[in-house]
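As a warm-up, study this chain.
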Amino acid sequence: MAITRKGENMNDTLIFKSFLRESIENQKEIEKAIESDNKEKALELIRKMIGRTQKGIEDN
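Now compare it with the structure written out below.
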């Protein structure tokens, strides 16, 4: 188990909250696209979300 300082935990929390805010915004956009029967837009948004998430994983 790694020993971390309080500041590092706080930074991780801020990064995770930022990820969650971006995720919920993406989900809202996807929801709107689905409600308006815009399958292509929904798929585009999902693919972008997957790409950004994968990049975020690889950057860490």
